[in-house]
Amino acid sequence: MPPHSNHRQGPNRYRCCTLVFCALAGLALTACTTTSSTTSGGDAQMAAYLKLVMPARVEIQRYLTRPVSHAGDGVADGLEVILAAYDSTGDLTKVIGTFHFELETRRLQDRIGRRVAFWPVEIKSGETMRMYRDHLSRYYHFPLQLDNRALQSGAYTLRVWLHLPTGERLLDEYEFAYDGHTAPTLRPL
After folding, report:
1. Can you tell me the distance from the alpha carbon of 45 to that of 38, in angstroms, rounded to the nearest whole number?
2. Is residue 2 over pLDDT 90?
3. Taking a C-beta distance cutoff of 8 angstroms, is the pair 105, 72 a contact?
4. Which of 55, 81, 100, 113 has the highest Cβ tally under 10 A?
5. Burial category of 184 from C-beta neighbours within 10 Å (exposed 0-12, middle 13-18, buried 19 and up)
């Protein structure tokens, strides 16, 4: 048989492939192990990571936030607040922390309004995040109901603070007027 025949090189080729496979498998296993010094990162890297992924700004979606009827009878007995949270790069992000919503009446001559309602909402788990976060739009949806009363016609300021686990607070506010018209029902989440 000629020297280039597959018959004679078959067993040698098999041994060679086995050796190459074992060498690659050993390399892959070595690459999978890391030392603790490369994974710990340190405080500076953790702070940089948190600054990058944690919310840097919250924004009430003014064209979606509105007085609503929780009872479905057309009487405005609360608010539907649609909120976006943005990271430091301007992308929508997830939130963990406590929201404080405050609704005040306001008059042009007054600098400080009168508190109408206050709602604390805590998001601290995947379950509570799914309760308030719309997966498609990535906005947060808060159905806030007034305590046994209707929203009167007038001018209002809605403030929202987000208290982050890092100790930082983010704020946004929205001034709107309600003329007493029939309120729509809540949108389904």
Report:
1. 11
2. no
3. no
4. 81
5. middle
| Count of the separate structural domains present in the chain | 2
Distance, CA of 45 to CA of 67 (rounded, Å): 43
Return d(Cα 3, Cα 44) in angstroms, integer. Answer: 64
* Statement to judge: residues 150 and 104 lie in one domain: yes
What gap in Å lies between CA 132 and CA 149, rounded to an integer?
A: 24
**Do 77 and 140 fall within a single domain?**
yes
In a domain, 158, yes or no: yes
Does some domain include residue 187? no
97-105 vs 114-123, strand pairing mode: antiparallel
Alpha helices in the chain (DSSP H): 6-32, 36-40, 42-53, 126-132
Q: Please state, in angstroms and rounded to a whole number, the distance separating the CA atoms of residues 103 and 80.
A: 12
pLDDT digits (tens, 9 = 90+) for 150-183: 999 999 999 999 999 999 999 999 999 999 999 9
Task: Classify residue 183: in a domain, yes or no.
Answer: no
* Amino acid residing at 2: P
Is the predicted pLDDT of residue 111 greater than 90, yes or no?
no
Domain hosting residue 45, numbered range:
6-50
**Model confidence pLDDT, tens digit, residues 39-65:** 456 888 888 888 888 999 999 999 999
